[in-house]
Specification:
The strands form 2 sheets. Strands 3-4-5-6 form a 4-stranded mixed β-sheet. It has a two-stranded antiparallel sheet with strand order 1-2. Helices cover about 35% and strands about 20% of the residues. It folds into 2 domains: about 30 residues; about 140 residues, no CATH class. The chain is built from 4 helices and 6 strands; from the N terminus they run αββαββααββ. The protein is of the alpha+beta class.
């Protein structure tokens, strides 16, 4: 025989279950409506496609220690820093290929970032006798003047780079020459590794110096 308190308890539990079911159903519907609303409120935009342009690569050849010019048509972003990073990444993809004439592992992921900074015009390069002391003023920056490219390499690229003065120098010179060939305002190049200064690339090529990009290669594309 079912006692009265048991019947009352059953009714209460049943009612609570029904109420919880209704609440959960309402929460589910609200979440579904918010999801639909969010999707509908996002405007549909076609992805931006960078225009295809000609890029020039100064590709190293270990057989004769030369830098040979190669051209490719690539979608290049308009932002100079992003453009420089993509072009250098493509150069390192060439070196990472199985048939590379200058085999270096790593590929495009080895270029973490490229920063382009203005090179201040040096007042100290003028003779001191040609101007009075009162005319001395801080160096000025020209928005159309020469630039310093700071190339941040990954530590994995440096760790995997073959050691040797010739092969390391070819890598550095090809990076500098490729930058200048595609961004003529780049006059100087410095290198970092994981955002920090490093003495050498793989024990030989000096990474503490500032390289003159235009002087990395001759107009014919051969190493100077």
């Amino acid at each position: 025989m079912i006692r009265r308190y048991q019947t009352v308890l059953f009714v209460i539990l049943f009612a609570a279950s029904v109420v919880m079911g209704v609440v959960l159903w309402q929460l589910r519907e609200r979440a579904h409506q918010r999801l639909i609303t969010g999707q509908n409120s996002t405007p549909t935009q076609a992805p931006e496609v960078a225009p295809a342009e000609k890029a020039t690569f100064l590709v190293a050849n270990d057989a004769d220690s030369s830098l040979l010019g190669q051209e490719q048509i690539l979608p290049l972003p308009q932002d100079p820093g992003a453009r420089a990073r993509l072009i250098l990444g493509k150069l390192l993809d060439i070196y990472a290929a199985s048939n590379a004439l200058h085999p270096v592992p790593g590929g495009a992921a080895s270029i973490e970032e490229v920063f382009l900074l203005p090179v201040p015009s040096s007042e100290t390069s003028r003779p001191t006798s040609s101007r009075p002391a009162s005319a001395s003023r801080p160096p000025t920056e020209d928005s159309t003047g020469p630039q310093l490219a700071v190339v941040n390499l990954s530590s994995a690229f440096v760790a995997g780079h073959p050691a040797g003065i010739e092969t390391e120098s070819l890598t550095v010179l090809s990076l500098c020459g490729t930058l200048h060939a595609n961004l003529p305002r780049v006059a100087q190049v410095r290198f970092l590794v994981d955002g920090q200064p490093r003495a050498t690339l793989a024990g030989h090529a000096d990474l503490t110096r500032t390289y003159l990009a235009a002087g990395a290669v001759s107009p014919e594309g051969a190493q100077q």
